[in-house]
Amino acid sequence: MTDKKSAALASALVALSDAVLVLASFVLAFLIRFYSGLIPLFYERIPALSTYAPGMVFACLVTLGAFRFLRLYRMPRGDSFASEMIKLFKAMTGASLIAMATTFLYRGVDYSRLVFVLAWAIGILVIWLERYALRKIQAWAFSRGHLTKNVAIVGTGPMLPTVVDRIESKPGLGLVIKGYIGEGENPTGIEYLGPIEETGRLIRELGLDVVIVALPFSEHERLLEVLRQTDGLRVEIRFVPDLFGLITTRTEVHDLDGIPLIGLKPFPLDPWGRFFKRLVDMFLSGVFLVIFSPVFAVVSLAVVLESRGGVFYRQERIGRDGRRFTMYKFRSMKADAEKDGPVWGRGVDDPRSTRVGWILRRTGLDEIPQLYNVLRGEMSLIGPRPERPCFVSEFAGAIPGYLDRHRVKSGVTGWAQVNGLRGDTSVEERTEYDIYYVENWSLGLDFRIMLMTIRYILTQGTGRVSQGMET
């Protein structure tokens, strides 16, 4: 069986598996609602499962249609697991709402709304687990040369090594480079296959599935020859515009009634993403505030007893969209630390620190009050560290793209900090990491940063995971 047929069969099997899981979720939800004893019954007579069968089948079909509409039956090649999970959540939620609205209009059966809600929750969980297992199976298949796609790259020059490097560094794409087509120098070491005029023959002889065209502007007229060579052949043509070499940010492709548009500086934190991120922030900040409440009392007492001044240090910072807010920390410096004006952070060994403050800054306990900022929605647990207005003005004029950090909420910890950029380190390098986070945000990346932060606290002997000094 060819890889193309195998991929089609795999998609069909996944759809069948989804159907089974959706129906099983409804059956389990029905049993929990009416037979578990966990939920009070208000029915004179418990309905038979068969009476729910039409509604279950309809909901299953709507769900499969939603999955297909969101292209969830295409093999994920390079897409993050978190992005796929968000798509699945959208599909399941939309399908459940449609199914509930439709079945409740049918008066032949009095459907329990709770059954649909339980089925929605169970379905999301089991299908997420299914897709996680499928990704593991896909990785195993790719590692053994199954379900992969044979690729040839058309073109030489500066874009060729970049494209080759990206493909070879991402085994999850399932792409196998057979070589390059064209004329000119080959700085990559991959095999030379032949001139562009023989593209059609090479596709047939090598069984190519994908042809990536990476021609410079000076040779774009040759794209027509590549398209002519591929007429009538079952092969994907993917085009890398020469803008790629000039653009440092991610791009995305839009469609304007048939006209392709290349979008620059895409923003992955869509309304659903913001909703989930806020939900996680509210839940975890609330939990952490309860857990650390004894620490609050001990630290507050230590700060007051050691030196004059308040327990908390309040400072104006710049957050998302340039909005100003008051950030809270435990005071770790002497009361007159800023008598000569704002000073850029000097790290945990700042001579202005008190003895208790040195410990707080060394362990990161001075940052705990920022959980209150997170709970209020002024900050997030994960995001670029916020800065003071005077430094934002200075850096915005000196560092290209610095203000892109403010496209998301500031965080207690961030991608730059878990990569070692804390304290008195390069602002330019921090900015690069912050912009990467903004343009590549996902729930998976947030949880990865959270785990890296915890690991840093436990293994490095210091919890200093942020650069937001009392400056």
Structure in words:
This protein is an alpha/beta fold and 471 residues long. It folds into three domains: 3-143, no CATH class; 149-246, 3-Layer(aba) Sandwich (Rossmann fold), CATH 3.40.50.1380; 271-459, no CATH class. It has helices at residues 3-35, 49-69, 81-105, 113-143, 159-168, 199-206, 223-229, 271-291, 293-306, 355-363, 370-376, 389-398, 415-418, 427-439, 443-459; strands spanning 149-154, 175-181, 192-194, 210-213, 236-239, 251-256, 259-264, 312-318, 324-330, 380-382, 411-413. The strands form four sheets. It has a five-stranded parallel β-sheet, sandwiched between helices. A hairpin with a 5-residue loop joins strand 8 and strand 9 (324-330). The longest helix is centred in the first third of the chain and has 33 residues, at 3-35. 30% of the residues are buried. Mean pLDDT is 80; it is low at 461-471.
Write a brief structural summary.
The chain has helices at 3-35, 49-69, 81-105, 113-143, 159-168, 199-206, 223-229, 271-291, 293-306, 355-363, 370-376, 389-398, 415-418, 427-439, 443-459; strands at 149-154, 175-181, 192-194, 210-213, 236-239, 251-256, 259-264, 312-318, 324-330, 380-382, 411-413.
